Amino acid sequence: MVKMRYFETRKARIEIIPMIDVMLFLLVFFIIVTLQMIPDAGVSLQLPVSTQTDQLPHPKFTVNVLPDGTIQVKGQNVTDSELTGMLEADGDPTKTELTIATDKTTAFQKFMNVIDDARKAGITDIGIAAQPASS
Predict the structure, then answer these.
(1) Residues 6 or more apart from 38 whose CB is under 8 A from it?
(2) In the 8-state DSSP scheme, what is residue 72?
(3) DSSP state at residue 69
(4) Whole-angstrom Cα distance, residue 90 to residue 77?
(5) What does the pLDDT profile of the chain (135 residues) look like in tens digits?
């Protein structure tokens, strides 16, 4: 008579270590995605004051014009032609929302140059950042 060997029956168990690895990966992924969704911190500017301010939705582009006339978009200095190219490359310029934030000591001509660059790119939805006047 041949003795038959049977495999031991083991009780199924859940491995927790791989599950923790997957959860940590998902957590890191969602943190990175969330950080990309946070609006630009912007540049410290003394915005002009207006009594007729409206709260605007978060624009697609925020262009900062520094007191020395430097143009910044998403933390990078750009020239007038680079700004126009960046705005044109965005897709449909008629649906692009742009907000211009400029220091109150910046020359008005620099501000107008940014508006001209946006209009050359075909953008019509332009907002101007201002601080609400204190009552």
Answers:
(1) none
(2) E
(3) S
(4) 18
(5) 666 666 777 777 778 888 899 999 999 998 888 777 665 555 555 666 666 666 655 557 788 888 888 888 888 889 888 888 888 887 777 777 888 888 878 888 888 888 888 888 888 888 877 777 665
* DSSP character at residue 12: -
Find tokens 């301010």 and name the residue: 53
Query: How far is the C-alpha of 47 from the C-alpha of 53, rounded, in Å?
Result: 12
Write the Ramachandran bin of 79: left for phi over 0, alpha for psi from -120 to 50, otherwise beta.
beta
Spatial separation of the C-alpha atoms in residues 66 and 100, rounded to whole Å: 11
Q: Which two tokens stand for residue 107?
A: 């020359």
Q: Domain 49-132 class? A: alpha beta
Residues written for the chain: 135
Number of alpha carbons in the 13 Å side-chain half-sphere of residue 4? 2
Domain extents for the chain? Answer: 49-132
**Phi, psi dihedral angles at 34 (to 5 degrees):** -65, -40
Say if residues 94 and 58 touch (Cβ distance below 8 Å): no
